[in-house]
Design a protein that fits this description.
The protein is built from four helices and five strands. It has two domains: 63 residues; 97 residues, Alpha-Beta Plaits (2-Layer Sandwich). By secondary structure, the protein is an alpha+beta fold. The chain is rod-shaped. Strands 1, 2, 3, 4 and 5 form a five-stranded antiparallel sheet that branches. A hairpin with a 6-residue loop joins β2 and β3. Keywords: Membrane, Transmembrane, Transmembrane helix. This is Type 4 fimbrial biogenesis protein PilO. It comes from Candidatus Wildermuthbacteria bacterium GWA2_46_15. InterPro entries: Transl_elong_EF1B/ribsomal_bS6.
């Protein structure tokens, strides 16, 4: 009978050991899963803190450079009503006694950025015309002059050298 007792004790001991291992194994799996979730949450929290810091820095930089951003916004012509650009253009031509005939603007569809193209015919003294081009170049708008044709105009003897020009101006729009 003692052998039977030992055998039963051994069987129950093994069953107890198996149950203990099962409970420990399930507990370890739960602990490992919870640690992984906690680690993921910590990474997410760190990422959110980093994004918050970047946002705060971006907001400070935006405020610091707001005047520059507004200035950059002003270099683009309003595509719906380019009145300011045309006023600037006509003001320069009147100050330098250059006669201009701008045509209606055309929207350029092949450019990557939005732009308008103005075809211009102009006539004036050669020295004033050079100043006119310099003022356009140094003006507040982002533009490109292309298809430039310049020729000497027929004038009576004893008058200033007049030139006639036709060119296109591409202005970039908002």
């Amino acid at each position: 009978m003692t052998r039977k007792k030992y055998f039963l004790n051994l069987v129950f001991g093994l069953i107890d050991l198996g149950l203990i291992l099962l409970i420990v194994s399930l507990s370890l799996r739960t602990i490992i899963r919870d640690v992984e979730i906690l680690s993921s949450l910590k990474k997410t929290q760190f990422s959110l803190q980093e994004q918050e810091e970047n946002f705060i820095k971006l907001n400070k930089d935006y405020r610091a450079h707001l005047s520059e951003i507004k200035t950059l916004d002003m270099i683009f012509v309003d595509k719906e009503a380019p009145v300011d650009f045309l006023s600037f253009f006509e003001g320069i031509s009147q100050n330098l006694s250059i006669k201009i005939n701008p045509s209606l603007p055309q929207r350029s569809k092949k450019d990557v950025w939005g732009s308008m193209i103005f075809q211009v015919s102009a006539q004036g003294e050669s020295k004033n015309f050079l100043r006119f081009l310099e003022k356009l170049e140094n003006g507040p708008y982002l533009m490109e002059i292309f298809d430039f044709n310049l020729k000497k105009a027929k004038t009576p003897a004893g008058t200033a050298d007049l030139v006639e020009a036709t060119f296109s101006i591409r202005t970039y729009t908002k």
